[in-house]
Amino acid sequence: MDWGKRVASIRQKVKEERPLIHHITNVVVTNLTANITLAMGAAPVMAYSLKEVADMVGLAQALVLNMGTPDDVLVEAMLLAGKTANKAGIPVIFDPVGAGATPYRTEIAREIVQELRIDILRGNSSEIASVGGLGGRTRGVDATEVSLEPAEMAPKVAQKLNTVVVVTGATDYISDGQRLLAVDNGHQMLSRVTGTGCSATTVIAAFRAVEPDGVVASAAALAYYGLAAEKAGKIAQGPGSFQEALWDMLYNLEGEELAYGVRIRELRS
């Protein structure tokens, strides 16, 4: 596969189709992820009320569930929206922020993957290990050491949960249990700005909204996002200017500039 052309093509479809991405996300990143969604050409909606989530998700092309600041009412809204999306064939992208940090978060994450059909599960290595029952521990929302390497973990958890698993880090790994891809695009400054992992989930959701193959959509999204971060990192003076530059790069990055810069490896096809 010519990954450069494929990534550029999916990115162009996002701009042309402007998919509506319904977020039930955390209070820390709401503004950031809405702006990231707009920057890449998609449309965000943040609707959490139990009185409207079922109606709203029916209008969307993808649903993002993010449990960064969980409470019981929010979880109920996530489950209602997720079940509605499942019935309508709308892809559900789940970001189990902080799973493994506390029993409460771990319980919520496992309930969501048991109750819903998750199309794509995206997290750091500790979060994915925790959701997958591999014993991951998380410090706040940051990854700590786990026994399995991400390249081993992604297909193992994907097979167990019957979903596409994305383990993000210095190198990102994507698997559906059979295929295994690695994405090498990215920049160290991403770890210095809050919400960049949640933003990656949003980009994945927008790509999945226009690309039916979850593995391809996830790899393409992370390559695009990572390359934008690389370009932002070259001009940023620190975390504040990096965040602004990242928005601009996501807005402008397309075509040949995008196609020539992506670094995706097929480890198992």
From TrEMBL:
- What are the GO MF terms of this UniProt record? ATP binding; hydroxyethylthiazole kinase activity; magnesium ion binding
> Sorted alphabetically, which InterPro entries does this protein's record hold?
Hyethyz_kinase, Ribokinase-like
Arranged from A to Z, the UniProt key words for this protein are: ATP-binding, Kinase, Magnesium, Metal-binding, Nucleotide-binding, Thiamine biosynthesis, Transferase
Could you tell me which pathway this protein works in?
Cofactor biosynthesis; thiamine diphosphate biosynthesis; 4-methyl-5-(2-phosphoethyl)-thiazole from 5-(2-hydroxyethyl)-4-methylthiazole: step 1/1
Q: Which cofactor does it need?
A: Mg(2+)
Listed under GO biological process in this entry are: thiamine biosynthetic process; thiamine diphosphate biosynthetic process
Which principal EC class is assigned to this enzyme? Answer: transferase
Protein family: Belongs to the Thz kinase family.
Q: What does this protein's UniProt record list under function? A: Catalyzes the phosphorylation of the hydroxyl group of 4-methyl-5-beta-hydroxyethylthiazole (THZ).
What protein name does the entry list?
A: Hydroxyethylthiazole kinase
Lineage of source species: Bacteria, Bacillati, Bacillota, Clostridia, Neomoorellales
